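User: Could you check the structure of this?
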Amino acid sequence: MCGLCGVIVGRQAKRQVREIDALSDTFIKLLLGSEHRGPYATGAAWVKRDGSMQVAKEPLPACAFVQSGVFLEWLLGVDRQVTYLMGHTRWPSRGSVRNAAENHPICASPILLTHNGTITDHARHFRRLELPRTTQVDSELLARLAQHHTGQDGTNIADFLAGLSPLEGSMSAALVATSRPDEILLLKGNMPLEILLHRKRRLLLYASERRILDRVLGGEAGWEEVFLAPGEALVINATEIHAPCRWRFSFLGMARESMCQRLTGA
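Assistant: Sure, the predicted structure tokens are below.
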């Protein structure tokens, strides 16, 4: 179990400094609200319109991470050019939290990825596809698959999603290619992912649990649920944040789980 969270910032004429400060505050609350899902390491990334990005991650619970020098320095880079704030709280299944490369966001240039779940047969697929590998964490496989299907114009969504089909295990994930920083991909497999949209403010928030979002927003008006079914991916363009594109996908782990549920009548 890990925690996914993030803020996707739609383009508008000009955001005031106080709005940027409010976005930063919301993102911090999302990290803190996700701590129980992964208290062993916390990470964050921002991506800007020009494709620049910065990652900060430490083997700390979120409550300590948001007070660390690494995070506070990272926070200084959040400005009007930001399109995406990506967060993750880690409960490790493979790899050491002491190795920064194995904490999330996972970096496989130009891909940034966060993952909740476990890819049980990752080693076989690394060999089968002859993908580069630099860590022991299974989530790197997803980042490398995305990297393999990404070019100067961003990720080929159809090919990437098709590449997930033979995988065993569990996943929900978020990813962005800095070669196309306005396009963010959210995938809900057989792990939770909840999304809220504010059309007027041109903002989209996500977290692994609805209660995290509700606590962060405290009843603020104007937010609407963006329902995402298991096996559905959402492609969000920052220029048209109110009109995401939906894709279907499947993978072996989810298919086996669905079959088992049907057989048992669950």
